[in-house]
Specification:
The complex is a heterodimer of chains A (333) and B (338). Helix content of chain A is 77%, strand content 0%. Chain A is mainly alpha-helical. The longest helix of chain A has 39 residues, at 189-227. Chain B has a two-stranded antiparallel sheet with strand order 1-2. Chain B contains twelve helices and four strands. In chain B, 62% of the residues lie in helices and 8% in strands. Classes of the chains: A mainly alpha (333), B mainly alpha (338). At the A-B interface, helix 1, helix 6, helix 7, helix 9 and helix 11 of A face helix 5, helix 6, helix 10, helix 11 and helix 12 of B.
Chain lengths: 333, 338
């Protein structure tokens, strides 16, 4: 792949991404207007006079014509200003970005759990087809894609935390940042790591199981397909060791569709994180979203949705670019 | 549309696959239980009976130990009171915190899950398939525009968009008259056949994009087929070509995706009702959220039973989906997400 064509691709994909982000912002802005009831109701006291309501509308800019509000909204967003929470009065940008790291940590931990377990399991399953390992993996992935993650979380709390008392079931007492800091700071590294694991393990498994199952299935079927292709036979025929055939050639080609699906399923991952956070009282974006919906705090909800949408677009640009490194046949145009 | 060859494949795959048979048994069982809920359920699922609350399932007697201290002759004596709560055969899966029969709740919960799963998927098909067919058939700027809309829709996680929309629109429900009640066979029960309308609309709106992608892919590859060109040369209108020639050939992958989507939407519905965004309290997800409060006090079955029901139904549907895909083997891009 030529370097210039890669750059041209990244630029083109980013421009497309900006279009999608603009669409995301517009949809989020429009959400407020498909709602019965004015946002003023969320702020004004129930017995507010007409004058008070008008004053509030003026303060929130809701008395302006729609296109002025929209223009102002876009302009503010470009400056990183997502407005102020109706309920807490705090800047939404501050609120969202203080909650985001917890959700990213949970999502990354779940993805790590999923990748570490699923790819070896899928490969084993495909290379030992119709053997006990294969049946076990197939059964596991069937359960994994069919079990609601919040229920799995509750069942793990029931067995591992309530009965055996070995994990923390609520909150995020120690963060991954604490673990990193303990490497250089005075806190004992091992103790901090164990503390972090005691919080993150159960939510990460609850959220990661569906993806472990999904990727195991994809890896298994992809490997079976690749191993049946003629290039594999040719490589074997010229005397290449079986490990090389399997891991350098077949697995590499299998991972290409797996990566696309991972990018597309990012939405499922974030959606799953929202509910996992609710089960384990994990203080992330999901908790913020549910709170803002229940309190009708539109700016906080809009800010969270925009950050998630932009994150989705960014990750998918990265995924599409990685695609080309793994698959030299991809021509960026 | 469904050719004899396809039917032969379906039969052949079915005969050789135990998993497909298991899937069919599970799905038929859930369908029957949901359809005949008033006849199958031993109790009214919403009737509370505080004297009989927290009864364990049959085979799982609960022992609870209470320590009480009292003064006897000037010294404190600690008395350990061990009480055994025996299961009641009238409540095979036990009762919840308000004494409602778990088995009956699980049976009626199947109605909510299946109604939302099937109707939500139908709505997603009705939106997604036309959009995808038009985009793929015309290509060019129509395709670009519709696919950008799909990209925007994909950028919002289904669950997040769904709770946002339900939060904004409220939780509307519609009471479906129960045929058994209308016929006077069973007494009317409040909430026993409540369709959470907003949930159906919302899950359809957040999942159409998967159908649009598949339909577009099919239309894109079919539009340059000889017979489509021939139809066009004969002067058939675009609408007629799409309806008569493109759609029938796109049906197979849409059916396979539809099966997967019913399972995904049942999981989505359970998440929504777990978070309290459903509008009906007779739902598996809602019962799990109730049961969660009893996990630390030992009443494990309240959260466990409805979850097992979700798992078995979704396993059944997924097995049928695998069977259809193996037999029909269409190219489905990705897997429809929950």
């Amino acid at each position: 792949m030529a370097g210039t064509s890669l750059w041209r691709f990244v630029i083109k994909r980013s421009l497309q991404g900006i279009g999608v982000v603009w669409g995301v912002i517009t949809v989020v802005f429009a959400l407020r207007f498909v709602t019965p009831g004015s946002p003023i109701n969320a702020v004004a006291p129930l017995d507010a006079t007409q004058e008070t309501r008008q004053a509030i509308a003026a303060e929130l800019g809701l008395d302006q014509p729609l296109y002025v509000q929209y223009g102002q909204y876009l302009f503010d967003l470009i400056r990183g200003d997502m407005g102020y929470s109706y309920i807490k009065g705090q800047a939404v940008t501050t609120m969202v970005f203080s909650k985001l790291p917890a959700t990213v940590e949970l999502a990354v931990a779940a993805t790590v759990v999923a990748l570490v377990l699923s790819i070896p399991l899928g490969v084993l399953s495909a290379t030992r087809r119709n053997q006990p390992v294969d049946y076990g993996a197939t059964l596991f992935s069937l359960f994994g894609i069919s079990t609601p993650n919040f229920w799995l979380g509750i069942m793990m709390i029931l067995v591992l935390a309530v009965q055996l008392n070995i994990f923390n079931t609520s909150g995020r007492g120690v963060s991954s940042v604490d673990v990193a800091m303990s490497l250089v700071g005075p806190a004992p590294f091992f103790g901090t790591l164990v503390g972090w694991l005691s919080y993150v393990t159960l939510p990460a498994i609850a959220l990661g199981t569906y993806f472990t199952a999904l990727i195991t299935r994809l890896t298994r079927s992809g490997m079976l397909e690749e191993l049946g292709k003629s290039y594999v036979r040719a490589t074997r025929a010229k005397g290449a060791p079986e490990t090389l055939v399997r891991y350098k050639h077949a697995l590499r080609n299998t991972l290409i569709p797996v990566i696309t699906v991972l990018g597309l399923q990012l939405g499922t991952l974030i959606g799953g994180a929202v509910i996992t956070e609710a089960v384990f009282s994990w203080p992330g974006l999901g908790t913020l979203i549910i709170q803002s919906i229940n309190l009708r705090d539109w700016p906080a909800l809009q800010g969270s949705l925009i950050v998630i949408g932009v994150g989705f677009v960014l990750v998918n640009i990265v995924v599409d670019t990685i695609y080309g490194y793994l698959d030299p046949r991809v021509v960026y145009n | 549309m469904i050719s004899p060859r396809v039917l032969r494949n379906l039969k052949k795959e079915f005969r050789s696959s135990h998993l497909a048979k298991l899937g069919l048994v599970l799905v038929v069982a859930v369908l029957l239980v949901a359809a005949f809920a008033p006849l199958v359920a031993p109790h009214n699922p919403t009737a509370q009976n505080l004297d009989q609350s927290k009864l364990p399932p049959v085979g799982f007697a609960q022992t609870s130990t209470e320590t009480t201290s009292k003064m006897v002759n000037g010294s404190i004596q600690t008395v350990e009171n061990t009480t055994v709560i025996e299961p009641d055969l009238a409540h095979p899966l036990g009762t919840d915190g308000l004494g409602r029969d778990m088995l009956s709740r699980v049976i009626y919960g199947a109605r909510t899950s299946l109604m939302v799963g099937v109707l939500g998927t139908l709505l997603a098909v009705l939106i997604g398939v036309p959009v995808g067919l038009v985009a793929g058939y015309y290509g060019g700027s129509v395709d670009d525009a519709l696919m950008r809309v799909a990209d925007i829709s994909l950028a919002f996680p289904s669950l997040v968009l769904a709770i946002a929309l339900i939060g904004l629109w409220g939780r509307a429900t519609y009471s479906i008259p129960d045929p058994f009640v209308v016929a006077g066979l069973t007494p009317a029960m409040p909430e026993a056949s409540t369709l959470p309308v907003t949930v159906v609309v919302v899950v359809g709106l957040v999942n159409w994009v998967w159908f649009a992608r598949v339909a577009r892919g099919e239309a894109l590859s079919l539009r340059s087929e000889e017979y489509v060109k021939a139809a066009r040369a004969l002067g058939a209108s675009d609408g007629r070509i799409i309806w008569r020639h493109v759609l029938p050939n796109a049906v197979t992958p849409i059916i396979v995706l539809g099966t997967v989507q019913i399972a995904a939407i049942i999981l989505l519905e359970s998440s929504l009702s777990f978070l309290g965004f459903s509008g009906t309290t007779l739902s598996w997800g809602f019962d799990i959220s109730q049961g969660r409060d009893y996990v630390s006090s030992g009443q494990w079955w309240i959260a466990t039973m409805p979850g097992l029901a979700i798992m078995l139904s979704v396993i059944g549907i997924n097995l049928l989906g695998d069977w259809l895909r193996d037999a029909l083997d269409p190219d489905i891009e990705g897997e429809g997400g929950a």
